[in-house]
Write a structure and sequence with these properties.
single chain, 456 residues, alpha/beta, FAD/NAD(P)-binding domain, Enolase-like, domain 1, 3 domains, seven-stranded mixed sheet, five-stranded antiparallel sheet, 21 strands, globular, disordered C terminus
């Protein structure tokens, strides 16, 4: 008899969700984590990043207060205080993860887990057998191979820098690069963002990409498109970055946010016959099963949709399927997503570009305006909202927003779009006034093709 019904390698969001759900259905579950319980989200991603986002907002809030009659005295930011508060909260969260695993009946192991065969995991010399194995080892930041790259940091290290830099170059154009560019900018750092392509946020709706870039530049982020880092050198005053355009930038810190790779090296997964793709991700079917019948994988190590709630969803679906006689296939359609730039992005469903390839015809509704708050602050910041509608059935197949609260709104819009709401139903919904969100139900006329929208 095996030691466990299920053994999970990885104590991040997906692994913990699957382990706890499986144990709740009576399975004997073991789980190993070599770092800290909670994984990327808790310790190197979503949670600490959102704390820094909050911290960076205060700079703008202090400025905006004057428009409403407030006199704000001299203010300053202490990086060490912020880091200490963040670390204390993450310690608390990890203790909760450990407690929940224990209360669920999961046997947890601290150490490096590696697959020995299709039914055995070795943890620091001790071997544990299981009928089913789950790989949930997440992802890891990728640093390109260029001269001096060892001088740079990634998002992993950004949360615990010994001091806040005065000048930073951030290389990359994805959501992590853009979020950290806005964070450091809001904390008073001089930020240059280099991106090798012609527009940031590849994969998002083009209107969102262009407007976000414009708004970031307004706040002071020096976004440089079609320019990349080609060499890093140590200097007496920091690091000199040579770019593909021949520019030399001397800064205190360089951060690469150039993508994340599946964290599958060194865990014996290929040795036991599990197929990986060219990125090192575990190839899985719709039910998260690898080519080895009893070895499954969820989360970022599969490189499907690399988001914490998706990993949790995949893990819970797998536990329901294997241990509750309730087969469930993860649904990766219409996933609401937030990008915590300043202003932030909220999006769900298809971009206009995707919709035009999947639908015979689409109608586009969009608006761009100054939010009520900034009519008194004078801040040059806009809100953008866009609905993508399948003309054949009037269904709203995409919604994209830029502005304060966009992330919160995208969660509820995700419910509506998941339920198949039509544009007529949006129109029939009474607006909440005065809010930015009311624009979502008061855009009655579609724009003409390629119309950039009207600034109200």
């Amino acid at each position: 008899m095996s030691d466990f019904d299920l053994f999970v390698v990885g104590g991040g969001s997906g692994g913990v969700a699957c382990a706890r759900r499986a144990a709740s259905h009576g399975a004997r579950v073991g789980l190993v984590e070599e770092s800290r319980m909670g994984g990327t989200c808790v310790h190197r991603g979503c949670i600490p990043k959102k704390f820094l986002v909050y911290a960076s907002h205060f700079h703008h809030e202090f400025e905006d207060a004057a428009g409403y009659g407030w006199t704000v005295g001299e203010s300053s930011f202490d990086w060490a205080t912020m880091v200490a508060a963040k670390c204390k909260e993450l310690d608390r969260l990890e203790s909760i993860y450990r407690r929940l695993l224990k209360e669920s009946g999961v046997t947890s192991f601290d150490g490096h887990g590696a697959l020995i065969d299709a039914n055995t995991v070795e943890v620091d010399g001790a071997r544990h057998s299981a009928d089913t194995l789950l790989v949930a080892t997440g992802g890891w930041p990728f640093i390109p191979d260029l001269p001096g790259s060892e001088l740079a940091i990634t998002s992993n290290e950004a949360f615990d820098l010994p001091e806040l830099p005065e000048r930073i170059v951030i290389v990359g154009g994805g959501y992590i690069a853009c979020e950290f560019a806005c964070i450091f900018n809001g904390l008073g750092v001089e930020v240059v963002q280099l991106y090798r392509s012609d527009m940031i946020l590849r994969g998002f709706d083009m209107d969102v990409r262009e407007i976000c870039c414009e708004e970031m530049r307004k706040t002071g982020v020096d976004v440089r498109l079609n320019e990349n880092a080609v060499k890093l050198e140590k200097s007496s005053n920091g690091i000199v970055v040579t770019t593909s355009q021949g520019n030399r930038l001397e800064v205190d810190q360089v951060m690469f946010a150039t993508g994340r790779a599946p964290n599958t090296a060194g865990i014996g997964i290929e040795e036991v016959g599990v197929e990986l793709n060219h990125k090192g991700a575990v190839n899985v079917d719709s039910g998260s099963c690898s080519n080895v019948a009893n070895i499954y994988a969820v989360g970022d190590c599969t490189d499907r949709v690399n988001l914490t709630p998706v990993a949790i969803h995949e893990g819970r679906c797998l536990a329901e399927t294997l241990y509750n006689n309730n087969p469930q296939i993860p649904d990766h359609r219409n996933i609401p997503t937030a990008v915590f730039t300043q202003p932030e992005i909220g999006t769900v469903g298809m971009s206009e570009e995707d919709a035009r390839t999947h639908c015979a015809a689409v109608d586009i509704y969009k608006t761009r305006f100054r939010p009520l708050k900034h009519t008194l602050t004078g801040r040059d910041e806009t809100v953008f909202m866009k609905l993508v509608v399948d003309r054949s059935n009037d269904r709203v197949v995409g919604c994209h927003m830029i502005g304060s609260g966009a992330g919160e709104m995208s969660q509820l819009l995700g419910v509506a779009i998941k339920a198949g709401a039509t544009k007529a139903q949006f129109d029939e919904t009474v607006a909440v006034h005065p809010t930015s969100a009311e624009e979502l139900v008061t855009m009655y006329e579609p724009v003409t093709e390629h119309d950039p929208g009207v600034m109200e």
